[in-house]
């Protein structure tokens, strides 16, 4: 009986002395909350959170729609810019063709103008002579 010997050496503990009861102060009675009121609170919190998340999601969707509209406007402006650049290039080409020497020469011949011979050319000196 090893277990009996093991417990044989232990001293028996005395019961703890009783504590003196403090004079209790009269606390005001806690307001009694009805179960209906607690149930309303339990229902209100999830509705509040769901409303908050719904508003946040609506804001995210609104921002995405605004970004999409801006992207469409930028794409349209890029297309307009490309069209105007092509038009400017065609106008520059037409101006170059209109101001070319062979075209001017043929227009002058139609009007009856002839080119002066190289021997008849002379230069006029406009600088005043110093004496």
Brief sketch in words of this structure:
The protein is an all-alpha fold.
Provide key terms for this protein:
single chain, 131 residues, mainly alpha, 3 helices
How would you characterize the overall build of this protein?
With 131 residues, the protein is mostly helical. The protein has a domain of 27 residues. Helices cover 62% and strands 0% of the residues. The longest helix has 64 residues. It is rod-shaped and about 145 Å long. The N and C termini lie far apart (154 Å). The model has no long low-confidence stretch (mean pLDDT 83).
The proportion of residues in beta strands is under 5%
Instruction: Give Rg in angstroms.
Output: 53 Å
Q: Name the helix and strand elements from N-terminus to C-terminus, one letter apiece.
A: HHH
Q: Report the helical percentage.
A: 55-70%
What value does the average pLDDT take?
A: 83
Q: What structural class do helix, strand and pairing data support?
A: mainly alpha
> How many strand elements?
0
End-to-end distance, in Å? 154 Å
Shape: rod-shaped
Low-confidence stretches: none
Question: How do the helices and strands line up, and which of them pair or pack?
Answer:
Elements: H1 2-8, H2 35-98, H3 101-110
